[in-house]
Structures are given as structure tokens and as C-alpha cells.
């Protein structure tokens, strides 16, 4: 089964969260050693927002429901990097007049 791609345009503006998992061993005299924790030690997540008509928000929710927070999908970050992501927390909020605001966070995923 092919990996689906999230293709809806999202609003930009919220800052991503980027961190690196590092293991540290502290020694006497202030000396310490640090090493990256595993081959994929970069963790990044991106808050996204989509505002549109109910029918479009339902399309996006159907896409996210198919992936159920666990199955990864392709998405291009604001810096233009294509990668695998999951989404565990979509929140569709009615704005009025048949318009909805969908907020969510896309978290980086890795294939084994």
C-alpha cells in the first residue's frame, strides 16, 4: 500500500518545535561527554492550521482518521523538506457560516 501525501495548503506562522535527543555523561571537574541518542535523534513537530468550508475540513479529517494517529503520511515542512509525519490531535472548530478552523500538530515519524 502506497504512503499517502497530505496536500492541503496550511496556514503558516506558528513556530515548529525542534529538539535533539542527547545522552550526557557528567564527570568530575566539569567535564562531560555528549552523544546523539540514536540515528534519528532529531525530533520536530509542526503546528498547522487550515481554515475553510466544512466540506474541505471533512476531507482533511477523513485523511487524518485513515491514519488514526499511528500510520505515517508524507508532508512537506515549511522549509520545503518532504518527510514522514503522524498527527494525533486534530481539532476542528466551527467559526461560523459553514467555516471551520482545523488545528493540529504534525510530528516527525521514521520508518524502521
UniProtKB/TrEMBL annotation:
A Pfam family hit: Phage_min_tail
Q: Which InterPro entries match?
A: Phage_lambda_TipM (IPR010265)
Its recorded name reads Phage tail protein
What organism is recorded for this protein?
Pseudomonas monachiensis
Amino acid at each position: 500500500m502506497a504512503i499517502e501525501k497530505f496536500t492541503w495548503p496550511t496556514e503558516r506562522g506558528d513556530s515548529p518545535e525542534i529538539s535533539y535527543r542527547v545522552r550526557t555523561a557528567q564527570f568530575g571537574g566539569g567535564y562531560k561527554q555528549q552523544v546523539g541518542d540514536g540515528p534519528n535523534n532529531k525530533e520536530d513537530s509542526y503546528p498547522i492550521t487550515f481554515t475553510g468550508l466544512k466540506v474541505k475540513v471533512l476531507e482533511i479529517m477523513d485523511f487524518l482518521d485513515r491514519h488514526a494517529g499511528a500510520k505515517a503520511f508524507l508532508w512537506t515542512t515549511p522549509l520545503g523538506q518532504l518527510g514522514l509525519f503522524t498527527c494525533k490531535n486534530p481539532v476542528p472548530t466551527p467559526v461560523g457560516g459553514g467555516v471551520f478552523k482545523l488545528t493540529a500538530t504534525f510530528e516527525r515519524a521514521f520508518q524502521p
